[in-house]
Amino acid sequence: MAERKKPSGAKYRKRKVEQQREQEKQKGSLLKFICRQDSTKEDSNGGQIPTDMEAEEISNVVDNDNVMMSETLSYSTVPVSHADNGQLNNSLEEHVEQANEEKTDNVIPQDPALWPLLINHNTRAIIVERGPQQIKDISFPNDKNNRKFSVFHYLRKLPNGEELCRSWLLYSVLKDSVFCFCCKLFSMKAIGISSLTHTGSSDWKNMAAILSSHEKSPEHLQNYQKWKELHQRLQRDSTIDAEILRKMKNEEKYWQQILKRLIALVRVLGEQNLAFRGTNETLYSANNGNFLKFVQYLAIFDPLMNEHLRKISNKELHTHYLGKDIQNELIQLLGNAIKKEIIQTAN
Prior knowledge:
Layout: H1 9-26, E1 41-42, E2 48-49, H2 52-64, E3 66-68, E4 77-79, H3 85-103, H4 121-130, E5 155-157, E6 163-165, E7 169-172, E8 177-180, H5 181-186, H6 207-216, H7 218-271, H8 289-301, H9 303-313, H10 324-346
Antiparallel strand pairs: 1-2, 3-4, 5-6, 7-8
Helix pairs in contact: 7-8, 7-10, 8-9
């Protein structure tokens, strides 16, 4: 390996000059993002000195090495050290977007009339994962024409007499109107393909024709497909997460059982006042000490330890808890536990 060369004194001085120039460029950059008040004082050089309140704010900013956003932005902090204006703006946008997404973790209303006009991906995913909630067990109110919504609108009757559930149809108690679940979530147009998309429809007299026309439109079919695709992805991700969690639990249980056996072995060797290590620390080799030798014999009768040693021999494990460091650590832990027990008994 080549020996590192120490830069000459000239290079050190040149580097220091460049650093000073860079610091001069950055000087005062923090002040660009602080809103100054009109009440300022001028110093003898004609410059402006911030008021006490403003100076305190600037001091806090410099001390923390970050810019504090206003309270309306949930006090998100943006690192600004060695960052230019473009990087700062990008960082601000990222923090604002993150703050907005965190708000969607709160309970999202069931009523579609309360959903925002522009729905971000995080909110959309939460609503899709929850699924459409169709209201059926209430007494629907009559309008001025003595008409009202009927649960029969949740069903679509085919020419052959078969009935299909309109799972996408939602009733809003707040507005006494109906919405399309998938078009409300996935429509990218300011003006929807029908009133079911954004504003909702309460034309009960013509509702059958409105629903029939809407569910046959290309835009509705596209949004319906997007809904089902997102739902499948969320289910797949949930299944993957559950599988990962199951593997983590099994791995945790595996190591707990291994450590229980090693702790028991350390206790036996300690009680019998036997040496732990030999002249080498390799499994299945001569003079590898009592600890490893007992582990080898334990593996003959214990399937778990046998599998553990197999993984070690095949180099499937890099951490095996059979080395001298873990032996010393287990001895120390057991010694401390015994000492604590003796002290408690004596007291």
